[in-house]
Amino acid sequence: MKFPDRLFAAIQAKGTPAMVGLDPRLNRLPEPFRQQAEQGVSQAAATLVDYHRALLDLLAPHVAIIKPQSAFFEQLGAAGIEALADAIQYAKDLGLLVLLDAKRGDIGSTSEAYALSYLEGGWNNAFPAADALTINPYLGEDACQPFLDAADRSQTGLFFLVKTSNPGAGCFQDHGSPSLAEVVAAKVADWGATRCGENGWSALGAVVGATRPEELGHFRQLMPHTPLLLPGFGFQGGGPEGLAPAFADDGLGAVVNASRSILFAFERDDLQHLPSWEARTEAAVLEMKAALAPYAATSA
Amino acid sequence: MKFPDRLFAAIQAKGTPAMVGLDPRLNRLPEPFRQQAEQGVSQAAATLVDYHRALLDLLAPHVAIIKPQSAFFEQLGAAGIEALADAIQYAKDLGLLVLLDAKRGDIGSTSEAYALSYLEGGWNNAFPAADALTINPYLGEDACQPFLDAADRSQTGLFFLVKTSNPGAGCFQDHGSPSLAEVVAAKVADWGATRCGENGWSALGAVVGATRPEELGHFRQLMPHTPLLLPGFGFQGGGPEGLAPAFADDGLGAVVNASRSILFAFERDDLQHLPSWEARTEAAVLEMKAALAPYAATSA
Q1: How many domains does chain B have?
Q2: Of B20, B54, B193, B199, whose CB count within 10 A is highest?
Q3: Could you tell me how far CA B181 lies from the centroid of its own chain?
Q4: Which A residues in the span 175-204 are in contact with B, Cβ-Cβ below 8 Å?
Q5: How many Å separate Cα B228 from the centre of its chain?
Q6: pLDDT tens digits, residue range A264-275?
Q7: Which domain covers residue A24, as residue numbers?
């Protein structure tokens, strides 16, 4: 089954385009994890394994897809990569889809090594294959080709950075007329046109910040069959308002990511009446799903 | 000592701007390493440790700086990251400078995690700090700021992708007028202007392919105090001709990277009279140094 078919079937099954990011900040984990992590690198990595298994257990009934952020695992070196591998495999075992947010991009033979690493199970199954990977397109089409080839072989997806969620994204992405982001969007649409699933959506997606609803309609027009990843919901200021242009009439076409607003929910004053970090986290996920209800996909 | 002072002092001491990339392709290692690597992931990672220690021993007398390519280690998962950490630490112990080629770039808090991972020793010394890191600037100035801050704190360097060595680099990098690459170059020069060492060179460098000598003079003008990393020498088609505009009159200002032309030299027909892979590799390094002799820095 192609990635877009798997993605949107799962989104329909869970009834929400909500995605949760795993961005573990070691000094902002719920207890007892925070204190355990303080004891050193191997303990911190072991703590991340336990924490993410518990987190994934509570997320699995509610969302279709999770997005681990590689950087927060890489800070623990090899032990962190083991914790990342564990989270990916555990999520897959729970039936969750995994978009690895690693924003890789390099020249041909090196891109091939990154694609092998994250979409095809690594060298001799050294690392669990994600269902999709974020890609930085700066190096150009020939540099992206090995990722396209690997995604074709492994029936996985790619999400290319087009217009990111950070306040200063326009610094280079708005350069020129049409803008760089528009030019990248057109290329992503073009590369993706021949890579659609049964549902008509492409295996090649694009990142457009949920923080910029005013641009969503325009990017949707430039990329009519491209799944959009909308990061920055919640903590970064993105709300549910104005996301409609990203979605088709049947509610398919986009996923909305929140990381910090879910991961830090256990600290929220207004949720302290709930007895555990799990209960508070679950409450924040349910809030997000409710906020995104207007965009919930109708079942096929 | 600031990064540019360390870099060019080392280049003067070794008498060459040559840099060697560590891009280990497991199926093209010299014997006995290739056969050892075939036995599985942990054996492959252990083989890379042994191979890189031997390689670094032979490189250390000849060059100032090496450039491990993270992708080729990442394909082995956590075991590969351990092999990368070993190569970085071993190179540092030999007095070599290390530019980690990982082309990272993300939004603020995630860039901070990447900078901690690779420039500041990771979380609680989880990973040996490199002397410099390659950065993909696509996400803009605010996204690059955590890397600048980390480089300031740790007196390390950054090399921003400006115009890469791949044939299709112009796909997005030539977009607009001025081009995206020119706009990025101007920003890198601007960010770097306040970050110069005693020798007048900045801690912020830029990547401009050695495969495009016709553009070097122009980028040098746009970035007068920016160390240039010129990748693509040798295998990718870059030669010594036309690199002069990258260098100042005293021979400082640039480093020239070769990876495959050095790493695969052991296979060369014309070097089979030499008795070992080490001898053939060393011969290729000496050839490169001879080719770059016109740009050898005079001692201070």
Answers
A1: 1
A2: B20
A3: 19
A4: 175-177, 180, 183-184, 187
A5: 10
A6: 999 999 999 999
A7: 3-294
